[in-house]
Amino acid sequence: MKIYNTLTKSKDEFVTNEANKVKMYACGPTVYNYFHIGNARPFVFFDVVRRYLEYKGYEVTYVQNLTDIDDKIINKAIEENTTFKAIAKKYIAAFEEDIEKLGIKKPTHQPKASEVMGDIIKLIKKLVDEGFAYESQGDVYFSVESFKGYGKLSGKNIDDQKAGARVEANTNKKHPADFTLWKTAKPGEPTWGSPWGQGRPGWHTECVVLSQKYLDTESFDIHGGGVDLVFPHHENENAQAEVLSGKKLANYWMHNGFINIEGEKMSKSLNNFFTARDVLKEYNAEAIRFFFLSKHYRSPIDFNRQIMQESDTAVKNFYNALKSVDYLSFKDEDINYSDADLAKKEEFVKAMDDDFNSAKALAVMFDLVKIVKSTKEDINERKESAKLLVELGSVLGFFTDIEAVLSNDLGDLSEKLLAILIEVRNNAKAEKNWPVSDLIRDKLLAQGIQLLDTKDGTKWEKK
RNA sequence: GGCGACAUCGCCAAGUGGUAAGGCAGAGGUCUGCAAAAUCUCCAUCCCCAGUUCGAAUCUGGGUGUCGCCUCCA
């Protein structure tokens, strides 16, 4: 399979460090607020990467950090007149809730920056000791000039940059591009003791420490995150790691594109900020997942009401197809795929192998939907395709709660009452008493029960 | 100013030299008391110009447009 690598700017054949094992890391949230729909894209996407690699037979170790020490958290704590720990705790809980609702599998490890403070300090000290970083007025900076490879990930040439819109006011640095590893304590901030006095770490070190520690290697397979993290965050991560180990922090750097809101960049000033939590109130998790996967992960994607409704309808089509063959009745049976199905499966794998072309993979699923729904096809063919539809959909993270969605279980009593209502309506229908029969149907529909008059009698389903 | 991405039907989107997948929406037919479902049919020459080629949405050059990064924002 091929993966687009930001480091080489090309689709590269994916070769793991260790056979059949993938070690991957993706930057997690800074827990100072509910995460927004834009944050959700990498969370969902790397969940799919993980699921697909597992489907391919790899043993995947997936680490995602939680940044629980940061200016934004401290500011929020001041704003809400509480401690930064309380803020972190609150939003970690919220994060976990939302992630679960989105159907995202828990990473293998999900460590917090604060848990590894000793390791962070140790790493910074090593950088200082070996001459890659220096102390200045209690702050510690990484010297970008000490690493000749600096800029290779983002394609930036540090000496070539325009002085910039923002002039570097910090005269403590040797080079304007030098970045902070440790900042000296300011009043009221949480601090930790270090060789350079009380202070706290910069943002770029935690990911190096957490990834290497929890993946148990200096150089792992995949590092992911949003495009905006390429510079400076990932560039800086790699610099710290490579300068010490002589190896790239990761072999493949994957970056997802941004989400726009109705054509505009999402921002607080435009007031077009949607938290994942709010979006989940209106659309189900699978519609959101479909929305993300309907376009290639590196492309920018526009979030709007119309596209969400379309995504929602599209996902319902998957379920309609499965209902049409009564999927739950045979879900545990062993079913052999036909040659046609195997060809579809191959198509799906080929699409995903090509740098996770999920849009194409979804098209394969719709081909299966067509077969499953088609009353002209042999019922066994339809069942086989349904089975494959679920198999492939699961790889993309759909159908995680398929029984609940497909099940029409209302409890014994409700079902009996419903049967009675249907009988009454059928009597009314027989007498061509349309007002009564329609009244029953409409009232049930308002309660979320859809009646369907079919050749085989009246059936119903939950809407 | 530096670096980079993208431009395919009303909307979303695949396509990487061989004559435009798929989804949503829409139109019409069958079925039907109506509705829903099902089913059949229809619906683009790919931003512009020039070039390479037997042949280009796909390659090259130029233009136009949109967007991102260069500010600890995914």
Please describe what this structure looks like.
It is a single chain. By secondary structure, the protein is α/β, with parallel strands linked by helices. 45% of the residues lie in helices and 15% in strands. The protein is built from 15 helices and 15 strands. The chain has helices spanning 37-55, 71-79, 84-101, 117-129, 204-215, 230-245, 276-282, 285-293, 305-324, 339-353, 358-373, 379-395, 402-406, 412-430, 434-446, and strands at 2-5, 10-13, 21-26, 59-64, 133-136, 139-142, 179-184, 199-201, 220-226, 250-256, 259-261, 264-265, 301-303, 449-454, 457-462. The strands form five sheets. The chain has a four-stranded parallel β-sheet with strand order 4-3-9-10, with helices on both faces. The longest helix has 20 residues, at 305-324. The protein is elongated and about 90 Å long. The relative contact order is 0.11. Mean pLDDT is 88; it is low at 162-168. The structure holds one RNA strand of 74 nucleotides.
